[in-house]
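Purpose: get a first structural picture of the assembly so the mutagenesis plan has something to point at.
Setup: two entries, given in the order below. No constraints added.
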Amino acid sequence: MGDPPRRAPPALSRNPLTDPRMTLACSPPTSTPVRRAGIRRSAGPAALACLLALGAGSAQARDLRMGLSAEPTSVDPHFHNLGPNNALRRHIFEGLIDNDPEMKLIPALALSWTARDDRTWEFKLRPDVRFSDGSPFTANDVIYTFCRVPLVENSPSSFATFVKPFTAVEAPDPLTVVIKTDRPLPLLPNNLTAIGLLSAKASGAPGAVTFAQGGCSGMGTPPKSTDFANPKVAVGTGPYALKEYVRGTQVVLTKNPAYWGRPATFDTVTMKPIPSTGPRVAALLAGDVDLIESPAIQDLPRIEGAGFSVAKGLSNRIIYIHLDQFDGPDWKTPTIRGADGKPLPANPLRDVRVREALSKAIDRKAIVERVMGGVAQAAGELLPFPLSGTTQGFPVVPYDPKAAKELLAQAGYPNGFEITLGTPNDRYVNDEKIAQVVAQMWTRIGVKTGIDAATASTFFTRRNAFAFSAYLAGWGADSGELSNSLNSLLLCFDPATGRGFTNRGRYCNREVDRLTIEAMGTFDAQKREALLRQASALAMQDYPLIPLHFEVSTWATAKGLRYRPRIDQYTLAMDVEVVK
Amino acid sequence: MSAAPAVAAEPVPKKPEPVWRAQGRAFFRAPGASLGLAVLVAVALAALFAPWIAPQNPYDLASLDVMDATLPPGGEGFSGAVYRLGTDAQGRDMLSAILYGLRVSLVVSLTATVVAASLGACLGVLSANAGGRLDAALMRLVDLQLSFPAILIALVLLAAFGRGIDKVIIALVAVQWAYYARAIRAQALVERRRDYMEAARALALPRASLLFRHLLPNCLAPVIVVATMQVAHAIALEATLSFLGVGVPVTEPSLGLLIKNGYDYLLSGKYWISTFPGLALVVVIVAINLVGDRLRDVLNPRLAA
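Result (structure tokens, whole complex):
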């Protein structure tokens, strides 16, 4: 692996650091008085200096304030595998390997990685890297991190699965790490992009750490997740360092002057959680923040009309409907009834014709155009092309209500049946609205559909308890390749191996399992992708779930700033460019 | 002295005018209250006959078309239908949705008020008559209940029960019975010392008859006043709960839920989704309050002076 310039900004021709006219705080205030008030409030006495600087042309502080749709639940990089946490983590703690905005692997703290055999990976570390507290980064910090990941207490969604297959982690020299695994793991580099590296010293382990499965030695007392709110504990090698974390209020980051890569663009970055869409857009329009993530789609014309810029990028998140296909002696699918309101003898969703009918009843074009305002892309399989394992031009199920009715009749439901569709109402873009439109379309082919909408935490608890016969949800493939989606959504549900753990429709096709599992153990990238394409095509023939669309992520920025869209939907200060 | 001529000479003594008729006349002397009552009757009729006058059944998902979503007032849909007040994000005709939403709002608030008033009245009369420990216990419960904000109690209950019209009614009853109990008890404490109650007691009437045939009917005036005000309160509370997303189901929106649906579109200039249901809500609540205010004046002789 080579060493391309870190996060090279292709579009940026001028170095913003040398051009004071491009600074944010001094960009001429837009005409509204609110905006001016906002600057005064945030910059305080600096406002005057700023005005002077505009004339004098000298450099001064450059700040970025970001309005986030969801708040990180902790600064601890290993506490919660959740979008906002992972985004915050990337500012402070780097991984061995990173993803670029297109989710390709790029070297971060590892310069190169090679599979020595099918169970041994060797990583060459980047030399002369220092943590934000000045101490050097070595292989010992890597070992410490892999030891610490499974020790996090009360993790709502743990990173431990990524390090569980490690049988040994060794450091032949301070800049080499060798990882041995209990099975072939061709996707290990993809998995490692998820793990941010800690400083062993700042975490209270000054000596050498030795890896051992089931308990490392030399760990000292690992910090608790809450300890990471302290900037002395939250020490990483990233372009920014933690200054302040106040739950529910804001996270403040400062530039890490010792950063090894391209210096951070901003001196401070403030992240404010503004969960409601309306107030978030209002905060941007009023100048209280400089950038917001996921503005309401219906507000985009207004935002652009007011002179702000909007960035859009296809995401790795599919919105889909899972259909309960389970049947057993003590299982009755929970929210389906016959057209007469009486229980049905069998679960109709087990019949592939019924699933096909429900899929064909949905006008995806109408959803994309009318509900999503064109900011989405109709989906045929689980990830959009060109991510690894996807197929160019994978067919989208066509809208054909007539065929759908015929299929229902053939399956023995000429009068349809009644079903309740579960949906979260605050998790995905327009989730509840999409569910209602699907209910309209299903009702029109005779499947009388009710909606059971709930806030995300309630919804997911009930979803995991199999409380819905059909539910709308989304899945973002963090690794950016198809085996992640297949493994989570379509492999046979098996709590023991963790396969199909989000497959709450319990679709099961052994051939799809075989192909996917083989792909996950294949090192040859082309061969792996071919296997995944085959598995995906085979699975989608069974209508195992109903793909609706891929979300298109949106960001809106103030004048003078531009956001470079990321497939993984993260909002990173590193991807904010200053433009004229 | 012969009785016949006297009867013939004197006019038959007029039956005294019933109290309610005098009160009715007093009520209509206020033009605001008359207007309020007229609006209220009109709204009630519109809600009652919504299935016949609404252009669309907004609760029948098959009759909605998402291709007609967020059309402005007067907009024409794909099928040629004209939407006088526009459509919401689901392609629901706003006029129909408001008529049906009024139905939900009125049914929920009236049912909740009747149940809460009956419950509160019974407990209030019992409390006043029993006195002592039962009275103290009940009134402390009322104090406790009134010291919590109504919306908070209702939110907690609905979070526990889940969505649904029946559950909203239960939550409203739970937060409103205390007002009635308090009002009735105060009146009953006065009434039970009146002569007619003494007489009833002297006749050794059974206790139930004493309480519910003699005492309760004479305490109803304040209940009527409280109830009128509380109907308006219940409508607002139901709208708030639905706005917060814990009220009625999303496929059968009430006024509050319609306002919430439109709230997402306010910034983008699609004013009609929130504004029209909001206006309908304001008109209903103002009308009820006008009527309630006047009723209080008419039924309370002390205020008349």
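Chain A has a mean pLDDT of 87.
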